[in-house]
Design brief:
The protein is an alpha/beta fold. The chain has a single domain, classed as Deoxyhypusine Synthase (3-Layer(aba) Sandwich), CATH 3.40.910.10. Helix 2 crosses helix 13. Helix content is about 45%, strand content about 10%. The strands form two sheets. A six-stranded parallel β-sheet has the order 6-2-1-7-8-9, sandwiched between helices. The protein has a three-stranded antiparallel β-sheet with strand order 3-5-4. The termini are far apart. The mean pLDDT is about 90.
Length: about 375
């Protein structure tokens, strides 16, 4: 059998790029990166794919791993929310916690990654690589703010018997909008204001989870009992997180709306978003092809079993994407470099979209998913 003929020379011809003093981000991406190889080309493809998601009016999810907000990433997320380019978010508790420092003008400074950590600890300086945070003036102060906002919301009965992390952060964001000096610097406040759900599936793995777990202890501090009153728990439900996130995907399916995701890193946020397809198809038993478009910006290798390095294409076998090799790209880049360029390219090339306000529709969408699941089980 003869090998199928292949035109090896149908790609763009590569030439040394030219630059000028007044290049825009669009020119940098389209005229330089797109004509190169390696991760410059992948970054250009990611910019174009993110634009396609927006232009096709896809339901777009941002997944945000690690701790990106301490270096200022929240500002870009705020702009994406305000322009209607991001419809829902899955992130870590660390990103939500550190995001709030800026709303309350708590100290966060550039530092030195090679500093003596023993010396830093003596001076109450907490280090995240080359970022310095003050233990007392920032972390302890932030803990008290979050506990106060949560307690006040509980007193006003803003937490139902069962609620998701998206509901918790909606309520917390409302508190930030009311009390912070600079709520415009918080993506949590911005998401709450614009009805963008923010899920934190690893809620307990953060200072927010630590702080809320402390509240029932203090609520009964004058009691002789060593037991805690369950009524005092602020306890987001993992079940509600799974159902509400799957409901967003299901709603896009039944309304024939494409779905896209921009993944910053990997970890729990990446997998939580990508499990929505298997939740609908594998568990509920209704056909779901997964996400139509996926961009992941990561530096992790795919060959050592780490979730952050898991390729998008292998998700085909799990039902996380419709077809391997199509509609996805992985630039292997530091997210603090790649993501601002993707955001800037979208701002220069995409028209603002009308916000979907999925947060307002979560109860309705979840109810529809439950109804459809029960009918499918008959």
């Amino acid at each position: 059998m003869k090998n199928k003929e292949h035109d090896h020379w149908n790609g763009k011809s590569i030439s040394p790029f030219t630059m000028n003093e007044k290049m825009s981000v669009t020119q940098l991406v389209d005229e330089i990166f797109d004509g190169m190889g390696y991760n410059a080309k992948r970054l250009a493809q990611a910019c174009h794919l993110f634009k396609s998601m927006i232009d096709e009016n896809s339901t777009v999810c941002l997944t945000l791993a690690g701790a990106m907000t301490p270096v200022g990433m929240g500002g870009g997320i705020i702009r994406m929310i305000e322009k209607g380019f991001i419809d829902w978010i899955v992130t870590t508790g660390a990103n939500t916690y550190h995001d709030l420092h800026f709303a309350y003008e708590l100290p966060v400074h550039q530092g030195d990654y090679s500093a003596d950590d023993n010396e830093l600890a003596k001076h109450d300086v907490v280090r995240i690589y080359d970022v310095y945070i003050d233990m007392q003036k920032t972390l302890i102060a932030q803990d008290k703010i979050i506990q106060a906002l949560t307690s006040k919301a509980a007193e006003k009965n803003k937490f139902p018997e069962k609620f998701s992390t998206a509901h918790y952060y909606k309520v917390l964001g409302e508190g930030v909008l009311e009390t912070a000096a600079y709520p415009d610097k918080s993506f949590i406040a911005c998401a709450s204001k614009n009805k963008v759900p923010v899920f934190v599936p690893s809620f307990a793995d953060s200072s927010v989870g630590m702080g809320t777990s402390y509240l029932p202890i203090m609520a009964n501090r004058n009691s002789d009992s060593k037991d805690l009153d369950p009524c005092d728990f602020i306890d987001p439900s993992p079940t509600m997180d799974v159902l509400e996130s799957a409901a967003i995907v299901h709603d896009s399916m039944i309304n024939d709306i494409p779905r896209g995701v921009l993944e910053v890193g990997g970890g729990v946020p990446k997998n939580f978003l990508q499990q929505t397809g298997p939740m609908i198809s594998q568990i509920i038993g209704m056909e779901c092809p997964g996400e139509n478009y996926v961009i992941q910006v990561t530096t992790d290798r795919p060959d050592i079993g780490g979730l952050s390095g898991a390729t998008i294409n292998e998700g085909k076998s799990w039902g996380k994407i419709p077809k391997a090799g199509e509609g996805n790209v992985v630039p292997y880049l530091d997210a603090t470099v790649g993501i601002p360029i993707i955001f800037a390219y979208a701002l220069e090339n995409c028209k603002p979209r009308k916000p979907r306000k999925l947060g307002d529709r979560l109860p309705e969408m979840t109810g529809e998913l439950i109804r459809a699941a029960r009918i499918n089980a008959e």
